[in-house]
Amino acid sequence: MPISIQVTKGLLTTQGEREVLPRVAEALLRAHGLTDNAFMAPNVIGHLMVSQQSESYVAGGFHSLAVIEVKVPTVTFPNAEVKQAFVGEVTDIIDQLKAGAHPRERTFVNVTYAVDGAWGIGGKAYTNAELGAAIQAAA
Question: Which CATH architecture has domain 2-137?
Answer without folding.
Answer: 2-Layer Sandwich (3.30)
